[in-house]
Each structure stands twice: as structure tokens, then as C-alpha cells.
Amino acid sequence: MRRMLAGVGGVGLAVMLSQFPEYAQQYTQRLGGAVDELRVITEDFDRAADQSGLDRAGALDRYEASSDTFLSDRGRSMQRTFQRYEELSETLTRISGADMVERFKNLPAYLDSDIGRRTLENYKPAVPVTIEGILYAGAGFLLGFLSLSALFKVFSMPFRKRRVIYRPTR
């Protein structure tokens, strides 16, 4: 009974962990798309500033110096856009160069971001046919099997019969 339940737990965790490489791939695609769009906005702003004889900082200073609330708010919005572009670009570079262990260690970063949540909302499971997917499945099976086996053993201890060793007396 213990082995069967542990096997079911192992298979369940294997299926779950085998999906991580696919999630990471879908996340990376979404992240790349966001970086590409922010790059277009950033380059367009920089080009417009350059045509006016300004650099980005000078153009943002103009927005900030404006007495028009709309323009000063727009300048702060653009500054946040540039910061997000830098952050997402760095994340994309870090993820693209990461090995499978580094990507798994950074799982909370995938889940905490807006892109990570949207990726989970639209996630499509896939059959793991890569070495990475198979390794995650194997690790999930071992972890699930051993965890459930240990739990079953611990919780069944009070219900076990003690063996009495009969030793005849002389």
C-alpha cells in the first residue's frame, strides 16, 4: 500500500515538475515580447529627443520643468517605462543565459512579476521531450515517491504491531 501511494505521489510530482521547462520557455517568450515593445518605445523617444537636440535626460527634464500637469506626469510615466525596460532587459539576459538549475532557483521571480502571472493564466501544458524536462520529471518522481513514502511510514507507526521475539528459557 505504501509503495503504491508513494508511486502515485511520485508520478504526480513528476508531471508537475516536468512542466517547469515549458513554463520557463513560455515566460521567456512573453518577456522577450515585452522587452521588444519597450525597446520600440524607448528608441522612438530617444530619436524624437535627438531630433530636438536633446538626450533622454534633457527631454525628461523638459517634461519635469513644465508647469503643465499632463506633461510633467507624462515625463514621470516615460521615466518608469525606461526603468521597466532596463529591468526586463536585465531579467531576459539573466534568464537566457541561465542553466536549468538557475532557472528553477529563480522560480519566485517568474511568479511575482506581472508577466509571470499572465504566463500562468495562459499556460499551456506540454509533454516534456527535452533532456531538461525528463530530468525535472525524474527529480519530481523521486522527490514525490520518497516524501510520500516517508509520510506514510511516519503516520502508520502508531498502528504497527510490535514483533515479540520468543526466546525459550532453559
From TrEMBL:
Keyword terms, alphabetized: Membrane, Transmembrane, Transmembrane helix
Parts of the chain that traverse the membrane: 134-155
Protein known as: DUF2937 family protein
Source species: Devosia soli
